[in-house]
Amino acid sequence: MSEVEQKPAGNGMVKTAAVSIGGCALLIVAAVYCLKTGVISIDPNKPVEEAPIVAPAPIYVTIAPFTVNIQSPRPMGGFTKNLIYSGLSFRVEDNETAEFLRTHMPELRSRLLMIMADQDPEVLRTREGKDKLKETIMNMLKEPFTKPQPVLKVTDLLFNEFVIQ
């Protein structure tokens, strides 16, 4: 007959216990290391670092430069004839507004020409005059181009070129 060797009964449990204790010790050492180096923190007063907020890229709708004839009355009678050469850009919040303005560019340019033709060149030579013109143009955008019209999200008007002669 053959003899079967039997292993002592407690030897497997000792190995399992040793591996478990070793694993727990390793986890404790790793946790202490992370706490000491600042990888993790248990301080509730420590501010949470947030990812930096990245501003979206600006969207501009550029109006090709144009020239407008303007007349202003002279103090002694008659009129002075001047030209305004201007290039503008609108800063918009979304692509829908940009596309809407590009689609309606002929009407937009017409409105801009009409506004510019009504200006006094002496007033436009001042910063306040340009600010007032900017306000007038921004208000013009509130007048609908179509019905119904989406809300136009225009945030600024920039004068890229502006010459009065």
UniProtKB/TrEMBL annotation:
<keyword id="KW-0283">Flagellar rotation</keyword>
<feature type="transmembrane region" description="Helical">
    <location>
        <begin position="12"/>
        <end position="35"/>
    </location>
</feature>
<protein>
    <recommendedName>
        <fullName>Flagellar protein FliL</fullName>
    </recommendedName>
</protein>
<keyword id="KW-1133">Transmembrane helix</keyword>
<comment type="function">
    <text>Controls the rotational direction of flagella during chemotaxis.</text>
</comment>
<keyword id="KW-0812">Transmembrane</keyword>
<keyword id="KW-0282">Flagellum</keyword>
<keyword id="KW-0145">Chemotaxis</keyword>
<dbReference type="GO" id="GO:0009425">
    <property type="term" value="C:bacterial-type flagellum basal body"/>
</dbReference>
<keyword id="KW-0966">Cell projection</keyword>
<dbReference type="GO" id="GO:0071978">
    <property type="term" value="P:bacterial-type flagellum-dependent swarming motility"/>
</dbReference>
<keyword id="KW-0969">Cilium</keyword>
<keyword id="KW-0472">Membrane</keyword>
<keyword id="KW-0997">Cell inner membrane</keyword>
<comment type="similarity">
    <text>Belongs to the FliL family.</text>
</comment>
<dbReference type="InterPro" id="IPR005503">
    <property type="entry name" value="FliL"/>
</dbReference>
<keyword id="KW-1003">Cell membrane</keyword>
<dbReference type="GO" id="GO:0006935">
    <property type="term" value="P:chemotaxis"/>
</dbReference>
<dbReference type="Pfam" id="PF03748">
    <property type="entry name" value="FliL"/>
</dbReference>
<dbReference type="GO" id="GO:0005886">
    <property type="term" value="C:plasma membrane"/>
</dbReference>
